[in-house]
Amino acid sequence: MNIYFGVLFFLLGSILASFYGVVATRLPEGKSILGRSHCNHCHHTLSWYELIPIFSFLFLRGKCHHCHKKLPIYEPIIEFLMGVFFCLSYFYYGFSYELWMSLILISLFVLIYISDFRYMIILDSPLIISSILIFILKWIYFGIQDALLGLLSGVILFLIFLGIGYIGSKIFKREALGGGDIKLAFVMGESVGIMYAIIALVLSTFLALPYATLALLSNEDREVPFGPFLISALCMVFVFYDKFTAVLKFIMRIH
Ligand SMILES: [Zn+2]
What we know:
binds zinc ion, mainly alpha, 10 helices, 73% helix
């Protein structure tokens, strides 16, 4: 374990978070991710020193240097947290399969949280890139057979979600699972396998319950984004894999 790599992973996390912020807010609005960022208020093009993750915010004291409008505080917070989580993953897992998988899942987590809560959408491109990366990762660490098995698990989970979504929409007379959630199921199956992905699905409904109840009580007819809860549950299953394995073994023994 090395402090130098720890710092490097922190920087990588915060730089990627800054990039993900651009991806998850521009793509749903139909804008290109290429091209320099602008101030949302005065549209002045940001200079290089206004684009450094975390530091620019501190340096500019949280205000646009041009129009002095307050900058969104959540951006540097996400950048900082993702840096911390990348760094922690490195210290926790070392250079291993789990480290790279953890970085992929953290990335998906951030992207889905931003785009699903703000725009009720899960973008295709992060899901496609994640599943390709997971395929390569499994191939490198466990061989082509495991990589292909991962794809098969993804397809099965995708079909299970499709079925649940279909039945749900018949019962509730409205879309129960969004298309994005069903595509996310593919990555869930591919990353942790069928059994653990189903555990994550069950867990996610419990996680979503308080939020859905609040949304119902507030009397607004707003849709509840399910993606953030699915990806949270998937991350929990991944981090506490051993604990969930113990639970699974326990359940198997009862039957
Ligand atoms: Zn401005």
